[in-house]
Amino acid sequence: MSHSNFVSPDLIRQRFSKAMSDMYRKEVPLYGALMELVEQTNRHVLDSDPQVARQLNNTGEIQRLDMERHGAIRVGTATELATLARLFAVMGMQPVGYYDLTPAGVPVHSTAFRAVHEEALQVSPFRVFTSLLRLELIEDRELRAFAQSILDKRSIFTPMALTLIDRAEAEGGLNEEDAEAFVLQALETFRWHHSATVTAEQYRQLSAQHRLIADVVAFKGPHINHLTPRTLDIDIVQAQMPAHGITPKAVIEGPPRRQCPILLRQTSFKALDEPVAFTDQADSHGSHSARFGEIEQRGAALTPKGRALYDRLLNAARDELKDFPNEANAARYNALMTQHFGEFPDTLDGMRQQELAYFRYGVTEKRLASGERRAMTLDELLSLGYVSAQPLVYEDFLPVSAAGIFQSNLGDAAQAHYGQHSNQHAFEQALGRATLDELALYAETQRRSIEACFEALGLNH
Question: Are the C-beta atoms of residues 217 and 198 closer than 8 Å to each other?
């Protein structure tokens, strides 16, 4: 088959993201209210802050803002994870980063499937935070064996989805008809099912071990448990949520409010309590809560030096708080974060000069005169106005932030202590490949942009 007949993986991802959003809006009505609030907030910011509007236009982010989403799912077996990796590959998504959530009392480890090249991200920045349940952390042997037996019986992919994945791999892509079918079939893996695969008592036992274990094991598939739009001002959204019938969590995860946002800030509303029919019940007499709403504000991607500074300041604030951030200590925690993060430069020039963040460089409209074609450094080109610098958007997740969101939405009873059990090797064995280093991806994007500037200006680099 001619490759010219294939639909771009980026367009398949874009269509899938839209279909997922439409499905989730029907399944979780509050998601619709959340989307309206985010759209109103983003319009307000763009109308009232010309600098933000200008920066988004300069980076091209304005085109992707409304369609930006990230989802999150949890799977139970190595086979499920490896097949998901193949499914996401059809949409041009690769596993980026390794996240160990056991220090937060969550028995999973994770990666983020997303596009990796800046051009692909502009078409669709859709990303899915994907977690694998760590059955070996279930202390009760009988319960662990039971959970394994339930997971071994299920198939979370439709036969047609598996056929289309095989076809895409064998032929190098999907044509229009197959791409359309693929989106519909792949969507079934992420759909919510009211019917559980266990009895009410078995669900209770799994839930007693950890509510997330029940969420993964007790259902036909890894229902999407949240879908997250991107806002330009998360503090406004947090303040406005109650007026829209949404109760936000007490603390926004991530760094404090800044003039120049960094990394990722997240807030959410608590999990829905949804009716469930267990196998020993005729009707939906039981209930399950795991799916929730989340909003994020994305800032600049930080370099290793920037991440080290971020981690140090975050840990200093939390150490001084001497508790997990919650409703009772939210004001003190926010004050401590603002105080400690005063050490982190809050200007783009400051972050760039101290090499704390990654930037994308672009040639301005100012052109070099023939007599100026000499060896020049990047800093000289910036100071003379031939080149501009915009921070690279952070496309990934924070282990502490992700863990906080998990904890706050599964409830205090869901927290457990697993100690430090990081095992990236085991995760990558289950995945069937190595995860990509997100910092290397940002560095490569920055390098490509610098080279493009020198080439466009006709200068040696």
Answer: yes
Length of the chain equals: 461
Q: How far is CA 381 from the centre of its chain?
A: 35
Run of H or E including 95: strand 94-100
**pLDDT tens, 113-151?**
999 999 999 999 999 999 999 998 888 899 999 999 999
Q: How many CB atoms lie within 10 A of CB 316?
A: 16
Distances (CA, A) of 321 to 157, 223, 273, 293, 399: 45, 35, 31, 27, 19
Beta bridge partners of 393: 300
Alpha carbons 174 and 166: distance in angstroms, whole number: 10
**Predicted TM-score of the model (pTM):** 0.90
Q: How far apart are CA 37 and CA 33, in angstroms?
A: 6
Using alpha carbons, list the distances in angstroms from residue 14 to 19, 279, 394: 9, 37, 19
Contacts of 418 (CB under 8 A, 6+ apart): 102, 103, 105, 107, 137
How far, in Å, CA of 372 to CA of 374, rounded? Answer: 6
Task: Report CA 402 to chain centroid distance, whole Å.
Answer: 9
Distance CA 152, CA 231 (A): 40
Q: How far is 280 from 96, CA to CA, in rounded Å?
A: 41
In terms of Cα–Cα distance, which of 343, 325, 347 is closest to 334? 325
Nearest to 128 by CA among 92, 157, 181: 92
